[in-house]
Amino acid sequence: MRIGTAPALRLLRSLVLVLTSIGAGLIAHDHAGGASPSGATLTGVAVLLLIPVLRLSRQAVSPAAAMAVLVLGQLGVHLSALTGGHHLDAAGGAHAHSMPAPLAVSPHDLGLSPQMLLGHVAVAAALAALWSRGEQILFALLERLGPPEIPVWTVASTPPATWHVQVAATLEPARLAQARAPPA
Q1: Taking the CB of residue 18, how many other CB atoms lie within 10 A of it?
Q2: What is the reported pLDDT for 9?
Q3: pTM score, two decimals?
Q4: DSSP helix/strand/coil, 96
Q5: Which of 41, 87, 122, 126 is the most exposed place for a label (fewest CB within 10 A)?
Q6: Each residue of 91-143: pLDDT tens digit?
Q7: Which parts pass through the membrane (predicted)?
């Protein structure tokens, strides 16, 4: 097993990527004046993202995979905010959204504009590049440090009762005779 893929480190790396993704979406949403989704909704988005990211993190996450996770996290935040949040329309007025019917979705129904899409993709690309570089550095550092030395504890076993007899039988017969002779 490679060092960077130990279960605890995989979980930590996955959590950081998912939380970065959701955090980027929340910051963008707050910056644009949008309402934030509830904590329970964000937790659901995080869990839905965390499951596949844990599988991805068996090895170093590629820039393309990091980009996909970052875009999906931001999209999850945006869509979860649409289920009751308020967005600013093109004229600057706030209006409430409810989740549109799947077949009748237009970019305006989702609160999307070309500038917003470009901003989300640019942030996701920059964060994916940083993430990829960070993973390279982490894996290089872990390879250089080598596997952690874990002490191996053993329990000393008591020798079997026949051990003394076996040792005595291997002695030379002369020494054995001397050992049995009465003291002189």
Answers
A1: 25
A2: 87
A3: 0.63
A4: strand
A5: 122
A6: 444 444 444 444 445 555 556 678 878 888 888 999 999 999 999 998 898 88
A7: 12-29, 35-54, 61-81, 112-131
For residue 7, name the pLDDT band (cuts at 50, 70, 90): confident
- Structure tokens that stand for 128 in this block: 């994916």
SS3 111: coil
Residue among 10, 41, 13, 9 nearest 25 (CA): 41
Residue 119 is predicted with a pLDDT of 83
Nearest CA among 60, 58, 77 for reference residue 20: 77
d(Cα 1, Cα 136) in Å, to the nearest integer? Answer: 17
Length of the chain: 184
* Residue 103 token pair: 């077949």
Proportion of the chain above pLDDT 70, given as a percent: 62
Closest CA to 98 of 86, 108, 88: 86
115-151 b/e with 16+ CB inside 10 Å = b? Answer: ebeeebeebbeebbeebbebbeeebeebeeeeeeeee
Cβ(22)–Cβ(81) below 8 Å: no
Based on C-alpha coordinates, what's the Rg of the chain? 32
Torsion of CA 53, 11, 41, 23, to 10 degrees: -80
Q: Cα(178)–Cα(88) distance, rounded to whole angstroms?
A: 105
